[in-house]
Design goal:
This protein is an alpha/beta fold. The chain has helices at residues 10-20, 35-45, 61-66, 84-89, 102-110, 180-186, 231-241, and strands at 2-6, 27-32, 49-52, 73-78, 94-97, 121-122, 138-143, 146-151, 155-161, 164-169, 172-176, 192-194, 199-202, 206-211, 217-221, 226-229. The protein is elongated.
Length: 243
């Protein structure tokens, strides 16, 4: 696969070239120090993939893409995380933060083999409800002006809040316009479990389980949060977990 690097920082290009040496299916055929050079190289060499910086003098990465008639697969590489939503909007393959983590780079490169419609998924979009969100997927979450690009497995639980759902991950509780029922249809039942009317929990985040009132259960998550599993769901939970 032919690759072009577009970044105004020489050291950033050198670092990326060093990391990409481990990927024998990728061949770097050119590099550009600004967007205009990038446009000319892409039109001439017709790469399959470009690693593209966003903030560059004169013309940023998003504007550069607008000047192209045919856009190759794009992996953004940037020092800033506030462009993640715009990267999703232009169907970027992935979004890497500098300094580039080798494991994240590997994840991004593996996506090249995936169907284009599976590159990224947004929890904020309802979609057709047919594609399941599995452990290895990454999702965009937008709450107001804030946005995140996280692995599904990092989400420890969802909580219904009126017409919205709170998404719990790291130290954040992002609010998205979705129903808990629609999310239950999207998430992998091997990873997430509907504990009650208000909560869906990540099974891998459960630290301990104890009997609770009226035949229910109470689970303690690894970070100390507690969630009750209703009596009806406790029966399903015990069957699922073979208790």
């Amino acid at each position: 696969m032919k690759v072009i690097l577009v970044d105004d920082e020489r050291l950033a290009r050198e670092e990326l070239k060093s990391l990409l040496k481990d990927f024998h299916n990728l061949t770097i055929i050119g590099e550009a120090s600004n967007a205009q050079e990038g446009i000319e190289l892409i039109r001439t060499l017709k790469p399959d993939l470009i690693f593209l910086d966003i903030q560059m003098p004169g013309m940023d990465g998003f504007e550069m893409l607008r000047h192209l008639d045919e856009i190759p697969k794009v992996i953004f590489v940037t020092a800033y995380d506030n462009f993640a939503l715009r990267a999703f909007e232009v169907n970027a393959l992935d979004y890497l933060l500098k300094p580039v983590d080798p494991d994240r780079l590997k994840e991004a490169v593996l996506k090249i083999q995936e169907p284009e419609e599976d590159f990224v998924t947004s929890l904020n979009k309802v979609g057709d409800g047919t594609s399941k969100l599995s452990k290895g997927d990454r999702v965009f979450i937008k709450d107001g002006e804030k946005c995140w690009f996280i692995a599904v497995e990092e989400i420890r639980m969802f909580e219904s809040d009126g017409n919205y759902v709170k998404v719990y991950f790291d130290k954040s509780r992002a609010l998205i316009l979705r129903s808990l029922n629609s999310l239950e249809d999207r998430v992998d039942s091997k990873l997430f479990f509907r504990a009650n009317r208000k909560f869906i929990i990540n099974l891998n985040w459960i630290a301990s389980i104890e009997n609770w009132f009226n035949g229910g259960l109470q689970v303690t998550m690894k970070n100390g949060e507690k969630v009750e599993i209703s009596r009806r769901q406790a029966i399903r939970f015990k069957e699922l977990m073979s208790i």
